[in-house]
Amino acid sequence: MKIFLDTANIEHIRDAAAMGVLDGITTNPTLIAKEKRDFKTALREICEIVKGPVSAEVISTTTNEMVAEGRDLVKVAPNIVVKIPLIPAGIKAVKILSEEGIRVNVTLCFSAVQALLAAKAGASYISPFVGRLDDRGHDGMEIVRQIRTIYDNYGFQTEVLAASLRHPLHVLEAALAGADVGTLPHDVFIKLFQHPLTDLGLEAFLDDWKKMPKQ
User: How far, in Å, CA of 181 to CA of 28, rounded?
Assistant: First the structure.
């Protein structure tokens, strides 16, 4: 499973990229706004650090405006993926942009039938929001499993991008469910490395080394 960071924080992106395990980035207007930087300047810097897909979201809600925004966003860098909301006008925009060879990440997906529509329109990625479904009392990961089954049944090439992952167990479950990508905040990314037995084992190795005779 590919790992994306869901952030616009340059320091966090550099940190993860230096580890050699970062495959891409997802952003949204909220994440960009938190950094208090010019939108396109921030995107350019992110795209210079990360050579994989970088999702940048439109802020319009009509088809023509979303298409115009998408065409403009891909001029920022060749690895930009246009993020479009899963609404009827958005699906129309997905069809237009995908036919022009522009990659699209369809976001705010909360059901498998929505994901089916996005794939039929030509989406490169579908982003089911696992954590937000959990918040409403649903089994958020079940949507990932359902989408995986539907896409495999019909040979859709749209990648399943498990979003709104809140903790390491979500990441594990997404990988087991066959998600192509998991996108997660930096703090969750760091938690993937952590295990008490790793810390105890390292501490024991270092203590034993200190007991070695010094030459």
Answer: 17
Q: How far apart are CA 138 and CA 152, in angstroms?
A: 23
Give the C-alpha distances (Å, rounded to integers) separating 10 from 41, 43, 47.
11, 10, 10
> Hey, which residues are catalytic here?
83
Look up residue 164 and give its two tokens. Answer: 């709104």
| Domain residue ranges of the chain, discontinuous segments joined by + | 2-210
CA separation for the pair 129, 50 (Å, rounded)? 23
Nearest residue to 72 (alpha-carbon basis) of 50, 87, 57:
57
Q: What is the CA radius of gyration of the chain?
A: 19
Q: Cα–chain-centroid distance for residue 38?
A: 21
Q: What angle do CA 29, 32, 38 make, to 5 degrees?
A: 110
Measured CA to CA, the distance from residue 186 to residue 3 in angstroms comes to 11
pLDDT at 117: 98
pTM assigned to the model = 0.91
Fold of 2-210: TIM Barrel (3.20.20)
d(CA 210, CA 61): 63
List, in order, residues 6 or more apart from 132 with CB less than 8 Å away.
110, 140, 164
* Residue ranges for the chain with pLDDT beneath 70: 200-201, 204-206, 208-209, 215
